[in-house]
């Protein structure tokens, strides 16, 4: 397979295990069958991480906030391109292996345009808040969304609590949850 991101640190997630988790959660809780585009790099670029148009972003260190991708470039010498929520996608999944949010990308765009949140750049294992440094040294541009705000605008939130995945719907957030005892993660 072609290495589309030569500047990606070796410790960074390649996204495949998180994509598998999103596919598992979609099937188990939402009864939606998602088909991975892994191995089909043209489909991955033009359609997303699934043939159904889902984008899955693994945020390994996500604790109290999410980083919502808005632009990227494949290397430090490449041009910046709209990505993440600014691509034509059906759903935008992001989070870590214990807390996953699912958004309508149009709602995230609207939130971004109205709220004008803090923007950060990431590349070579470093975060940059300075725009000049970010544009020069990073490969991903994103905005910061607190999990508190994310809860208000997400379609669903999945949380792993005591070995059980729980699916929270917006009407259920803060009140009740729908749970399913399952393996800690799907087999990939």
Distance between the termini: 18 Å
pLDDT averaged residue by residue: 85
Helices and strands, in order, run as HHEEEEEHEEHEHEEE
Q: What does the main sheet amount to?
A: 6 strands, mixed
Main structural class: alpha+beta
Unreliable stretches (pLDDT < 50, length at least 5) are 1-5, 172-188
Helical coverage, percent range: 10-25%
How many DSSP H or I helices?
5
User: Any idea what the shape is?
Assistant: globular
* Portion in beta strands: 25-35%
Oligomeric state of the chains?
single chain
Count the beta strands. 11
Strand order of the largest sheet: 1-4-5-9-10-11
Gyration radius, in Å? 16 Å
Number of domains: 1
What does it look like?
The structure is a single chain. 24% of the residues lie in helices and 30% in strands. The chain is an alpha+beta fold. The protein has one domain (16-181). The strands form 2 sheets. A 6-stranded mixed beta sheet has the order 1-4-5-9-10-11, with helices on both faces. Strands 3-2-8-6-7 form a 5-stranded antiparallel beta sheet. It starts with 15 loop residues before the first helix and ends in a 7-residue tail after the last strand. The model is unreliable at 1-5 and 172-188 (pLDDT under 50).
Q: Features of this protein?
A:
disordered C terminus; five-stranded antiparallel β-sheet; alpha+beta
Give a quick summary of the entry.
The chain has 188 residues and is of the alpha+beta class. It has five helices and eleven strands.
Task: Summarize the SSE layout with pairings.
Elements: H1 16-30, H2 41-46, E1 54-58, E2 65-72, E3 81-82, E4 91-96, E5 99-103, H3 105-115, E6 119-123, E7 126-128, H4 131-137, E8 140-146, H5 147-153, E9 156-161, E10 164-168, E11 178-181
Parallel strand pairs: 1-4
Antiparallel strand pairs: 2-3, 2-8, 4-5, 5-9, 6-7, 6-8, 9-10, 10-11
